[in-house]
Design brief:
binds glutamic acid, alpha/beta, globular, 12 strands, 2 domains, Rossmann fold, seven-stranded mixed β-sheet, five-stranded mixed β-sheet, 16 helices, 475 residues
């Protein structure tokens, strides 16, 4: 045996390895598999930005993994760890993510190699506007071409800057608002996009945990009520996953790990209060009723029903996989489990719910936002009042026929027409439930498929290959 310590595969290598494992379980010819695997376009750019009285050269990327459906879609990451290979891995995952949830886009991702916390708001705006200009120059952005969104280190503010830059150059494009998603609601965004990835994680977990035979294999009862959860990362995804899982699923979050350290409470952590505490104090450490764990890494190794890594890639590798005691891992981040760690975890019987399914809520609601922008109208605007009037008529009729009275509270609840946010949540819930049923079906039907990630890949690869075949490019 080699004495050298085994190197953790890079994120991109893990994605390729997982893809190859699944591709071998399909009957798709090699040429087509090769076409599906590769990144179709990689744009690497360097541009100068003035910072104070100096200039800095910024390194940035936009990768379009697959053009089988257009536009391509995926977030933009601001982090000093950005590399071309990382952005390629993330763009690749976007293709399969979109296929799994039947969002009709190819995958893409952008990355700007900066630490966003190092710059003031004006400089960040300059960087974002310049990056957008570079994308416009090379025709790498547009409602029908490539549509960015938030990712690690970016949010609605950056998306508003992107839209404003785009419309400065393309005022004649009547669909310009659809050139980017994840915008502030007041700037052509959609209600429910901010919480979407976290809400999708919860809907996904609820679906997965509703299957009695799968849960009893893990020694768990059906349902989410009272189940313990550990969360790594309190960014947009981790915080909403925690808030919604507690409020709507009855989960108990027993530990949280963040940059500054990790905290634990067997009684459960009050997420809303914790987020407020962190905002005020700048740390989660010292939050009343919790104890500080020796390191932030040990949180991942705690005994729990569901572990939610919601930070970055390669958090669970061969160096800690053996010590993981969670029964279920819900990959809220992209690529948190390396391919070799997964082998160890699967042998231990851990159920890994893959990123490309469980964190697809963000892109799903991005799709709704894009549709809203193309229709130039808010969802629910036409039918809300009509529905409410019809329901009121129905309630009155039932009350009259039965002689029963309906309280005002009941009436208000029953006779409500759907708002935009109700429709977004309902569309998301439906998407997450249907997508899981498809993955599970592949998992149960194909004996050679032993895990959910491979099942998700097989299902996605089959959908994409059907597109290529229908184009007549491949026989
Ligand atoms: N960055 C998110 C993801 O990784 C969202 C992408 C989007 O909405 O286009 O899925």
């Amino acid at each position: 045996m080699s004495r050298q310590k085994k190197r953790t595969p890079s994120f991109f290598e893990s994605v390729e390895r997982n893809f190859n494992k699944a591709a071998a379980k399909t009957s798709i010819p090699k040429g087509l598999i090769d076409q599906i695997r590769v990144c179709n376009a990689v744009y690497q750019m360097r541009f100068p930005v003035r910072v104070g009285n100096k200039f800095e050269v910024i390194e940035a990327y936009r990768v379009q993994h697959s053009h089988h459906r257009l536009p391509t879609k995926g977030g933009i990451r601001y982090s000093d760890k950005v590399t071309q290979s990382e952005v390629m891995a993330l763009a690749t995952l976007m293709t399969y993510k979109c296929a799994i949830v039947d969002v009709p886009f190819g995958g893409a991702k952008g990355g700007v190699k900066i630490n966003p916390y190092k710059y003031d708001e004006q400089t960040l705006q300059n960087i974002t506007r310049r990056y957008t200009t570079e994308l416009i120059r090379k025709n790498f952005i547009g409602p029908g071409i490539d549509v960015p969104a938030p990712d690690y280190g970016t949010g609605p503010r950056e998306m508003a800057w992107i839209l404003d830059t785009y419309q400065t150059f393309k005022p004649e494009d009547i669909d310009r608002a659809a050139c980017v998603t994840g915008k502030p609601v007041a700037q052509n965004g959609i209600r429910g996009r901010g919480e979407a990835t976290g809400r999708g994680v919860f809907y996904g977990l609820r679906e997965v945990m509703s299957h009695k035979d799968d849960m009893s294999k893990l020694g768990l009862s059906v349902g989410t009520e009272g189940k313990t959860m550990v969360i790594q990362g309190l960014g947009n995804v981790g915080s909403h996953t925690g808030l919604i899982s507690i409020k709507e699923g009855g989960f108990k979050v027993i530990a949280v790990s963040e940059y500054e350290g990790a905290i634990y409470s067997s009684k459960g952590i009050h997420m809303e209060k914790l987020l407020k505490y962190r905002k005020e104090k700048g740390t989660i450490i010292g939050f009343p009723g919790t104890k500080k764990l020796p390191t932030r890494e040990v949180a991942l190794e705690l005994e729990c029903d569901v572990l939610v890594p919601a930070a970055l890639e390669n958090q669970i590798t061969i160096s800690n996989a053996k010590r993981i005691k969670a029964k279920i891992i819900a990959e809220a981040a992209n690529g948190p489990v390396s391919a070799d760690a997964e082998e160890i975890l699967l042998k231990k019987g851990v159920l890994i719910i893959p990123d490309m399914y469980i964190n697809a809520g963000g892109v799903t609601v991005s799709y709704f936002e894009w549709l809203k922008n193309l229709s130039h109208m808010r969802f629910g605007r036409m039918e809300k009042r009509f529905d409410a009037n019809q329901y009121t008529g129905l309630i009155n009729l039932v009350a009259k026929m039965t002689g029963k009275t309906v309280t005002n509270k009941e009436r208000n609840w029953l006779a409500r027409g759907a708002d935009e946010v109700d429709l977004v949540r309902s569309g998301l819930e439906e998407t997450m439930a249907t997508a899981y049923q498809q993955i599970r079906e592949t998992y149960k039907r194909k004996r050679s498929v032993q895990d959910l990630r491979t099942a998700a890949f097989v299902s996605a690869i089959n959908k994409i290959s059907a597109d290529y075949i229908s184009f007549g490019i491949f026989p």
